[in-house]
Specification:
The complex is a heterodimer of chains A (about 500) and B (about 290). Chain A is built from 22 helices and 8 strands. Chain A is mainly alpha-helical. In chain A, strand 6 and strand 7 form a beta hairpin. Chain B has 2 domains: about 55 residues, no CATH class; about 210 residues, MetI-like (MetI-like fold, Orthogonal Bundle). The chains are: A mainly alpha (about 500), B mainly alpha (about 290).
Amino acid sequence: MVINKLKSRSNFVLFLLPAVLFYFFFAILPLLQGFWLSTTNWDGTAPWTPAQMPIAEFQQKVLDPTTDPGDKALLLKYYVKNPATGMYQRHDLFGLDRYRLLMIFSARGIVNPDFKNVGLKNYVDIFTGNIDPKFFPQNYRQSRFQDGDPLDNIKTISTQEWNQNLLPHVTKPEELKFLENSFQKTPKGYVLNTQLYPMSSTDLQTALTTIPALSNDWEQLYENLTDAGSQLKPVSAVEAILAADPVVAAHRLSAPELSKLKSLAVQVFNEAYLKSVVASNWFVSKIRMGVLVFTIFLTFFNVLFVNILALLLAFALDTQIKSRNILRSMFFIPNVLSLIIVAFIWQLIFTQMLPKLTGYSDWIMNPDIAPWLVVIVATWQGVGYYTIIYLAGLQNVPQDLLEVASIDGANNFQKFMKITLPMLLPAITICLFLSTAGALKTFDIIFALYPSNSTAVGVDNVVVNIFYDAFRDKHAGAATAKAVLLMAVILLISAVQITLTKRKEVEL
Amino acid sequence: MSNPFNPVEPLSRPKRPLGLVLFEIVMIVLAIIFIYPTLYILINSFKGTQEIVIDPIGFPPHPSFNNFISVLQRQGAGGFTFGTSLLNTFLITVMSVSGIILISSMGAYILARSHSKTSWVLFSLFAFFTVIPFQLIMVPLVVLATDLQFQSIVGLSLMYWGLGAPAAIFMYHGFIKSIPFSLEESASMDGAGQWRTFFQIVFPLLTPITATITILDILWVWNDFLLPYIILRAGTLVLFQFNFFGQFTQDFGALTASLVMSATPVVILYIAMQRYIIKGISAGAVKG
């Protein structure tokens, strides 16, 4: 009996050991380390112990106070004296030795500025808003015209745009006057005055090359004039600027050449000045959602759409139509594809098919539309999964009960409200929580739909933000702190789910 | 006409077969619209890049397999071709899923059959995994992979053992509870030890749930992106796909063909194993 018990105890350990061991190593240990890292200022790559230290300092502060021979040997194994630089330099190290060295150094009271305990600073920063402003909603200007855009883009400005988005932003009277001179009001809108701007930028440049004395330096001159123009110097200053220009000074220009240059220079100058005025004043003030609000936006609409569509689909497929199984398979297909493939499929749809179909090309990079595109892709991918859960829930609706209700004279609506819906409630609860947790963690879709430019378009959610924070912007510690808070949110959601499910079980 | 979505009134009533037929046609059209994005990619994969740019919507004027051949010949990031990436993914999936099945079935068996406090604590600890966001263990996992020199397909597979075990144990646990104890008892009376009882009696009985877990885990490991991305950077099929899009941004013919090629293995698997996938999702969800 005793032997049996011993044996079963050893079996208990042996059967469980692999699972527990691997789970501990690759989930629990990283979790604990995550908590620890979230209290450091680590950037994710900096060495934990100094990469090098002056010889004297290393000996005084580290080597001499270390009495344990093992520790000393370890230190000397990785830190090698390099008299040429006057430093102890560290070899690459990884594994347990990294942790042992860190302990030796912290026991000696040496603080590595790149890897030190900052307590709850990361958390305090998040709660006091002392982080990347992109995390929160913010105003921004969506420019209608950039300095580098060709002049053709502002050949005509519609009256509405002129009155709403350009004129109200012009504050300086001289700029206003300049603008009103440059454009002529027509029924089509405000049209660029072709007398003031007869040539395009390329024509202007070509014209400059026809002044032989300038030879190849015309490019430099063009740049100088453009710079001066875009710095909003008054047009009357052209002559003075030309006189002071080093390029003009360096070349001997004949009188006709000089006058030709002057007329060209005025045009270059006008153009640069106009571009600069329009670029800095023609914009729309917008509000960017920021990471936090976008996460809520994406989660809310994804959960809403996925569940409504899945419920409708489940009802539709729970009928006697012949092709129900094939249809169910078709709606489920996006779910078996990798999210990366799903995102790329839609990327091609958004960048090729939609522009061709609608004639409008600004879809995926348009900050107004992009958040909805992410919702569409996430919904398309997820709907099949929840349809299956709802279908399983519908199987639980007892048919005999419905028949009895029919006999008792209940109409369809009554039967739906009194029987079908209550029996579906568990499935609805499960789907709501599963989809909420899933939507909150949407990563692959955004990451692949917007490789490297999701931040610019404003479709970073919390998990994407954490990823970029940790690996691109080098704030591993702060990023992990955000992840800890995300876990708190998920814990909260799960707690609500468990209480709700428990209560319903009692009711049933 | 009453609401066609209402399941309460079966549409199969012989009275209104026309309504049902119309409804079915509507549903089929909707389903085709729904999967149109995948069809779009499939159709375009037979066109040349120029043909796609000129007319992305129509059928290929001169269908050819050139795109597929060119994808096969290209080298992606890290020197991995489509073929080597496919092989790597296959190896990772086989190693990961077989390991998960083995350690989880054994662990869940003991947890389900013993009623001690320890087993309850351990089971709760496994269940706790569901609330850990991957972003929290992401940085530590990179550190760990460096420390253990795990930046290889074997290392990655071992990591999947630990990350896949909780869900598998959860599903096994529920299933084992439903198996009567008497079989094991009689086996033990006949002198079989616990190991033999498990591998010869219990494990075969677990086949249905093993199939479900296997297929769900295959889909997970095969399609996973973030863990391989931070550990390996290149080498799996999904990573090949991701890097391919970064590398050949304008070569639409090759891009669509690469999507078709990466998706094909999973779609074949899905068509063959549909039953288990749907059963697994319904069963997993009902338990919550």
